[in-house]
Specification:
mainly alpha; Penicillin binding protein transpeptidase fold; 59% helix; peptidoglycan glycosyltransferase activity; Biosynthetic peptidoglycan transglycosylase; Lysozyme-like_dom_sf
Amino acid sequence: MLKPLRWLARRFLALMLAAVILFGWILNPPTTWTIVSEGVSTPRKWTRAADIAPVMLRSVVAAEDANFCRHWGFDMAEIRRVIARGESRGASTLTQQTAKNVYLWQGRSWVRKALETAYTPMIEALWSKRRILEVYLNVAEFGPGVFGIHAAAAHHFGTTPDKLSARQAAALAAVLPAPKTRAAQTRSARARAIADGAATIQRDGRAACFQDG
């Protein structure tokens, strides 16, 4: 009984690894479970990291995962901090969120979390940090039916990803934790804090792993 189960487990992990290689090196994810299930209100268009304003990359890191360049997929210091404080919020990194958004589904379950935990180190091992951010920004939801940075820039600010200002980038990053209820407001307190954080991680080197050149 155990031998067939081990065989199935190895084959399943091999399929997961193949999927990580496919979307890391060969193809851009054409869609996700979330996009298909929720529908698209603003046209999507894949945007390369090179065609996204660098401040947008720094802003999403500052907002969602300030230690992105310093962990291997799981921010253990943040996890310990959340546990010590008894907080209910999660401590998911951008890599974990990318694994969930690309390969899995929304909602909480032990099955989904276990698969996310398996995908995360594979992505960290096989993708560059810059590729993780590129994929994340192209599949993340920035408003009801607004998926990807190209649609977000057009929908919220009538511009393209390469022309986003620091304030606009911070406002878009501020939407990410709750895209269905938050508005992209450049003057909100959270957007201002994210803009400051983006400047800080550029100065202190925490953006070095994904900055071009």
